[in-house]
Design brief:
- The protein is of the alpha+beta class and 342 residues long.
- It folds into 2 domains: 107 residues, no CATH class; 211 residues, D-amino Acid Aminotransferase, Chain A, domain 1.
- It is built from 6 helices and 26 strands.
- Strand 24 and strand 25 form a beta hairpin.
- The longest helix is centred in the middle third of the chain and has 13 residues.
């Protein structure tokens, strides 16, 4: 889950709209925004609100965009759309004060919040939180944090699967499982629970039990998918699961080591899309296309980008970011997504 942080930033470039003389395309980080011709210039200082930012009516009225924003819980949700054939994401405005500096956090000034999709699950199986099974890293959107990676740094791109986040753990020889926000009670039938489903997979169970004999804390993070969200991966009414990360004895496991562990036991990971020197444009291209989940035949939601070796950054903490495809963001179902990651 990403958060909403609104910063003073700069427009990187402004170019002609491909199909409208009165409009232009402003590039802000990894986002493209359609603006009126002559309204903004390259390098100009602005405030940018990415899609799914929630603002009060006070601000959307002042910016003249209330009619273009959906109303949710008394606040307006900044949308994404296509204008004369070009994608337009979010909202760009001039700063309220000239003395604001680039990279200044103005989230609180605007009262901006992150849109939270409606929750779709029962909470009667929630269990107490376990500090030995921490929630997964908050993953920010790479489009808004394009300078976190070092130019030409080797990065791993894996497919962002559209399902529900799972944390399955072996803690001092005992099984645990949970969703992104809540631990879950162990059910009688693992296949009936999105979050305990991985334990019904023999190879996954073997891996966790073997690692549990060598370590006090083993947490596998992954995605249960299929009959969970609107991208079904041709799974019909059944579930499937892929690992995307591991935490062992308090340390995040480097990608290559995680692959080695999963391969040893025949446990499937999320599909690898590419291993490349960091290049935002190339990553944008890789975010598009069909899913690489075997047997599925629909769009790819996007990619998750992380360095080959674990590291942190002062602005985002642990370095792991997502790049969701334009095709997914502009799809008819994206704006009404619910969530089971609770």
């Amino acid at each position: 889950m990403s958060t909403t942080k609104i910063f003073v930033t700069q427009i990187e470039s402004v170019k002609e709209h491909t199909n409208a003389d009165a409009l232009e395309l402003a590039q802000i980080g990894g986002w493209q925004c359609v603006v009126r011709k002559g309204e903004y210039n390259a390098k100009e200082k602005v405030v940018y609100f990415p899609p799914d930012t929630m603002l009060s009516e006070k601000w959307t009225s002042k910016f003249g965009v209330s009619q273009y924003c959906s109303l949710k819980g008394g606040m307006r949700r900044i949308n994404r759309t296509k204008l004369r054939g070009e994608p337009s994401f979010g909202l760009v405005v001039r700063p309220e004060h000239d003395w604001w500096e680039v990279d200044q956090d103005v989230t609180d000034y605007y009262g901006a919040k992150k849109y939270e999709p409606p929750i779709r699950c029962k909470m009667d199986n929630a269990a107490p939180e376990d500090p030995m099974v921490p929630r997964y890293t908050d993953i920010e959107n790479l489009r808004g944090y394009t300078r976190v990676f070092i130019p030409q740094e080797e990065v791993i791109l894996t497919e962002k699967i559209h399902g529900t986040n799972v944390r399955a753990a072996m803690i001092e020889g005992e099984k645990r499982s949970g969703s992104r926000k809540h631990m879950r009670k162990e059910p009688e039938d693992y296949t009936a629970s999105w979050w305990w489903y991985p334990w019904s997979i023999p190879r996954f169970k073997e891996m966790m039990e073997a690692l549990g004999k060598e370590h006090n804390q083993v947490v596998a993070y992954g995605e249960t998918f299929g009959c969970v969200q609107w991208l079904k991966y041709n799974a019909g009414n059944i579930l499937d699961f892929r690992v995307f990360d591991m935490l062992i004895d308090g340390k995040w496991v480097d990608y290559d080591d995680c692959v080695t562990i999963c391969d040893r036991f025949g446990v499937q990971m999320v599909p690898l899309i590419a291993r490349i020197p960091y290049d935002l444009q190339v990553i944008a291209e890789y975010s598009e296309g069909k899913t690489r989940v075997n047997g599925a035949d629909h769009i790819r939601e996007g990619v998750v980008v992380k360095p080959v070796h674990e590291r942190t950054h002062p602005r985002v903490g642990r370095v792991i970011l997502k790049y969701v495809s334009d095709t997914y963001l502009l799809g008819k179902n994206a704006m009404k997504d619910d969530t089971s990651d609770v």
